TrEMBL record:
Keywords assigned by UniProt, alphabetized: Isomerase, Magnesium, Metal-binding, Phosphoprotein
InterPro entries xref list: A-D-PHexomutase_a/b/a-I, A-D-PHexomutase_a/b/a-I/II/III, A-D-PHexomutase_a/b/a-II, A-D-PHexomutase_a/b/a-III, A-D-PHexomutase_C, A-D-PHexomutase_C_sf, Alpha-D-phosphohexomutase_SF
Pfam families: PGM_PMM_I (PF02878), PGM_PMM_II (PF02879), PGM_PMM_III (PF02880), PGM_PMM_IV (PF00408)
PANTHER family: PHOSPHOMANNOMUTASE
Cofactor: Mg(2+)
Organism: Protaetiibacter mangrovi
Name of the protein in question: Phosphomannomutase/phosphoglucomutase
Alpha-D-phosphohexomutase C-terminal domain ranges (all copies): 390-466
Similarity annotation: Belongs to the phosphohexose mutase family.
Domain Alpha-D-phosphohexomutase alpha/beta/alpha per the UniProt entry, residue ranges: 11-131, 160-265, 272-382
The keyword Metal-binding appears for this protein: yes
Length: 470
């Protein structure tokens, strides 16, 4: 059998490949061995969890074989969300591997690796070395057994995970809310009843949960488990209106991202959610007696209102590139209390710096449920500007398109190259900004635009798109 080229599907922040042709049990065993070797985890605990995809249990078992062969003691936590593996990694202070392809179609699977304490691993911080070690084992034809082979044990952490989240956000005193939750046949179908309901043996909350697609099914029979795409929110939007619900929540396949719609079925911007949670987290640590500078991270394509809200709360906004492992690293470097991304990833210092969509949803419910306005009115105060959302364009000559944009906007605003190109309009020309970022893996340019008014946003959006696509 031809040895697969792991560099084709070991990505910048995780492993994501086609089942059978790229990801096989043999490949997973080799990656597990490389993981244990690179992290020097022989003789230590390593956690493995998996989502509901058909291939995930077999891959998790293969990982346990490869990791234990190299001397690690494997704790298998079974079916779980990605943020459950972060919990286990932090709670047990152990490296972890989560088998999931998040929102990708059923023919894909993947691995999200963490160091002990839920620290992210990217190509530049160990994933490339894990890949190369695994490639060598595949070329040799087998993973060699360590002198002291490790053990494999099973442990259910769902109840502990749910209790931990309940300890971070108290929902017991909010007004009663009716919530439609679309789990997209993903892991939210297991975690929502445990955290927001009584399935894990916790006290009942003042929440009426109306479930949508809670059956775990890795074939995603109803719609893709990617709420970032508007068409995947349609069922939730209809159900919220039909049931007269106060709001709706949608989780992606591995339930680490959460999207929100209001009582009218209209989406609530992830930037608005980030602003709400940021102000709550700053207020919480101040009330707990934390003095000195408090920092909150936001990536450069969240709404301008996010850093404004952070500053209004008396904290320091820290602007970063887009990127999951990068932001987890920045959380630790800056000791930030919270971090928010435009893609509905939300990071918490009290959750080992890792992202947790459920925890963000709980903060939103706590803040919203503590006042009387409908969500549409409540959220509007945190979403005063007009955002385009991310627009992708296939471009054969990315540098040429980039040059056209630079030439067209020279003298019209400030240029910033933190992550791609950001142009911010000069104050006398009104408030607007846009960011253009090239894809790392495809001939794409990604455009995000924001302005003070929808009309202004549309003008800038259309002008930049014409330059990109000409």
């Amino acid at each position: 059998m031809t040895t697969p080229d792991l560099s084709a599907f070991v990505k910048a922040y995780d492993v994501r490949g086609l089942v059978g042709s790229q990801l096989t049990p043999e490949v997973v065993e080799a990656l597990a061995a490389g993981f244990v070797d690179e992290l020097d985890a022989a003789g230590s605990t390593v956690v493995v969890g998996h989502d509901m995809r058909d291939s995930s249990p077999e891959f998790a078992a293969a990982f346990a074989r490869g990791a234990s062969a190299r001397g690690a003691d494997v704790v298998s936590i079974g079916l779980c969300s990605t943020d459950e593996t972060y919990f286990a990694s932090g709670w047990l202070d152990a490296p972890a591997a989560m088998f999931t392809a998040s929102h990708n179609p059923a023919r894909y699977n993947g691995i999200k690796f963490s160091r002990a304490g839920a620290q992210g691993i990217s190509l530049s911080t160990g994933l490339a070395a894990i890949r190369d070690r695994a490639q060598a084992y595949l070329a040799e034809g087998a993973v060699p057994r360590a002198d002291a082979v490790g053990t494999v044990a099973v442990r259910d952490v769902l109840a502990d995970y749910a209790a931990h989240l309940r300890s971070l956000v108290d929902l017991s005193g909010i007004r009663r809310l009716r919530i439609v939750v679309d789990a997209g046949n993903g892991m939210g179908g297991m975690t929502v009843p445990a955290v927001l309901g009584t399935a894990a043996g916790l006290a009942e909350l003042p929440l009426e949960i109306i479930p949508l697609y809670f059956e775990l099914d890795g074939t995603f029979p109803n719609h893709e488990a990617n709420p970032l795409e508007p068409e995947n929110l349609r069922d939730l939007q209809r159900a919220v209106v039909e049931h007269g619900a106060d709001l709706g929540l949608a989780f992606d396949g591995d339930a680490d991202r959460c999207f929100v719609v209001d009582e009218k079925g209209d989406p609530v911007s992830p930037s608005a959610v980030a602003a709400i949670v940021a102000q709550r987290e700053v207020a919480r640590v101040r009330a707990a007696g934390e003095t000195g500078e408090v920092r909150v991270i936001h990536n450069l394509i969240t709404s301008r209102f996010v850093p404004e809200a952070i500053e209004a709360a008396g904290a320091i906004p820290v602007r970063t590139n887009v990127g999951h492992s990068l932001i987890k690293d920045r959380m630790r470097e800056t000791n930030a209390v919270f971090g928010g991304e435009h893609s509905a990833h939300y990071y918490f210092r009290d959750f080992w710096g890792a992202d947790n969509g459920m925890l963000a949803a709980m903060h939103l419910l706590a803040e919203f449920g503590g006042q009387a306005e409908p969500l549409s009115a409540f959220a509007a105060a945190f979403d005063p500007y007009s955002l385009s959302g991310e627009i992708n364009s296939t471009v054969q000559d990315v540098p040429a398109a980039y040059t056209r944009i630079v030439d067209a906007f020279a003298g019209r605003g400030e240029f910033d190259e933190l992550d791609g190109l950001t142009v911010t309009g000069a104050p006398d020309l009104g408030f607007w900004w846009f960011n253009v970022r090239p894809s790392n893996t495809e001939p794409l340019l990604r455009l995000n635009v924001e302005a003070a008014t929808p009309e202004q946003m549309e003008l800038i959006r259309d002008e930049v798109l014409a330059l990109i696509r000409s």
